[in-house]
Amino acid sequence: xxxxxxxxxxxxxxxxxxxxxxxxxxxxxxxxxxxxxxxxxxxxxxxxxxxxxxxxxxxxxxxxxxxxxxxxxxxxxxxxxxxxxxxxxxxxxxxxxxxxxxxxxxxxxxxxxxxxxxxxxxxxxxxxxxxxxxxxxxxxxxxxxxxxxxxxxxxxxxxxxxxxxxxxxxxxxxxxxxxxxxxxxxxxxxxxxxxxxxxxxxxxxxxxxxxxxxxxxxxxxxxxxxxxxxxxxxxxxxxxxxxxxxxxxxxxxxxxxxxxxxxxxxx
Length: 267
Ligand SMILES: CCCCCCC/C=C/C(=O)SCCNC(=O)CCNC(=O)[C@H](O)C(C)(C)COP(=O)(O)OP(=O)(O)OC[C@H]1O[C@@H](n2cnc3c(N)ncnc32)[C@H](O)[C@@H]1OP(=O)(O)O
Ligand SMILES: NC(=O)C1=CN([C@@H]2O[C@H](COP(=O)(O)OP(=O)(O)OC[C@H]3O[C@@H](n4cnc5c(N)ncnc54)[C@H](OP(=O)(O)O)[C@@H]3O)[C@@H](O)[C@H]2O)C=CC1
Fold this sequence. Notes:
The protein has helices at 30-41, 53-63, 80-90, 115-143, 163-182, 206-217, 227-238; strands at residues 21-25, 45-49, 69-72, 97-100, 146-150, 189-195, 249-252. With 267 residues, the protein is α/β, with parallel strands linked by helices. The longest helix is centred in the middle third of the chain and has 29 residues, at 115-143.
């Protein structure tokens, strides 16, 4: 079954995030789009980024009429100077939330990953996250804000065919826990979310569909993670209810991290 068993529920109260500002990377599609729309629906002024302007414009169209707002600036997060300048621009009037969502990888056994392929995935999924988070630090400190970084279910146990991505995201988890300590007295909270299989355009195409079906079948609860449920969790972490949540990896995956996990792609 690749569809959720029940419609996703919105449980947070309207207006919860009114008066707050957030930056979401990878906001033009999939999880990043759903997160941006939910945050804006709860009243946040959201700024999104990603490389494709038309994808970001699509999110902006969907955000029309929501309680908050969605503005965007195209940017490649792997270009450190450009993305650092973007953080400065977006945060000029305050920043309450940073969502490090842009990411991705290709599936390949480690012996087939070139050095450039490794570096590309580590740049996208680790180095860019450090650059953006460091640039956001003074602004988050001023507002006692939060950082949520999108990770992977099972990141703490490894995954065949994902050595580059797991290494990068395990690095992000280590960074998250270290900064949760360093920045605790600044009131900044940092957490990682580990979604299970999420049906997004990143998993589109016939070959991906076959992998998707096998991943879902191997998920103990037998269903994928809806983007809306990831978005609700991000909003919770951004809200006062998440006040003491920091340094966590929260896996929203139907127990996928306890099942066969990513390994089965390699079999
Ligand atoms: C039970 C648990 C369930 C959890 C499920 C988790 C599943 C996760 C799903 C997702 O994350 S989907 C959402 C994200 N979307 C994607 O992952 C797709 C996006 N991927 C990419 O854009 C690329 O893979 C990229 C490498 C991250 C970036 O591509 P870019 O265009 O910037 O680089 P390239 O110039 O194309 O390549 C750079 C380098 O990498 C080598 N390479 C690329 N693909 C492969 C491959 N399939 N196999 C081996 N090597 C590859 C490429 O050859 C280049 O290196 P050189 O050849 O020049 O040495
Ligand atoms: N789908 C899944 O099953 C799972 C996904 N994840 C993770 O969740 C996150 C979102 O994935 P998902 O929504 O599924 O996938 P998508 O491919 O739909 O989203 C990835 C987003 O990242 C953006 N992005 C990629 N590279 C860059 C870059 N260099 N600079 C700026 N933006 C970039 C893309 O925008 P653009 O192309 O316009 O740059 C895109 O909007 C990723 O980190 C993914 O690995 C984690 C677990 C499971």
